[in-house]
């Protein structure tokens, strides 16, 4: 972390709520698999001529991103998508990550937009 400039975004651990500048932004393996299921189910619905509200309601949930301090990130299974909080401190960093992640086929089935919006607006619950 650049000590001479305060970060644009305050990152807190989703487990202990402490500042997590030593930690990681994580889509756990479980959340990644949820994203992939949602993507597959959405693609199937897209191929149908019509679908019911019930079918829409039965879609799997989005995969949820979370920030964890180093201690709590290291307790997670090592099967998800991770990057260091130190690489996501500025608005520019987040824009860069958004472009980078948008090329992943599961990205649109995650809550990245809401996750980032809540962090940028410092609404951290
Ligand atoms: Zn923690």
The average pLDDT is 91
Report the total helices: 5
User: How many domains in all?
Assistant: 1
Name the helicity range. Answer: 25-40%
* Strand content bin: 5-15%
What gyration radius follows from the Cα positions, in whole Å?
Answer: 16 Å
The side-by-side strand order for the widest beta sheet comes to 2-1-3
Task: Tell me about the largest β-sheet.
Answer: 3 strands, antiparallel
Number of strands: 3
The H-and-E topology, N to C, reads as: EHHEHEHH
Bound molecules: zinc ion
Termini separation? 24 Å
Name the structural class.
mainly alpha
The dominant shape is elongated
Low-confidence stretches: none
Task: Please provide a written account of the structure.
The protein is mainly alpha-helical and 125 residues long. The protein has one domain. Helices cover 38% and strands 9% of the residues. It has five helices and three strands. The chain has helices at 29-47, 53-57, 70-73, 91-101, 112-120; strands at 24-27, 66-68, 81-84. The protein has a three-stranded antiparallel beta sheet with strand order 2-1-3. The radius of gyration is 16 Å and the shape is elongated. The two termini are 24 Å apart. The mean pLDDT is 91. The structure holds zinc ion (ZN). Zinc ion binds at residues 13, 15-16, 18, 68-69, 71-72.
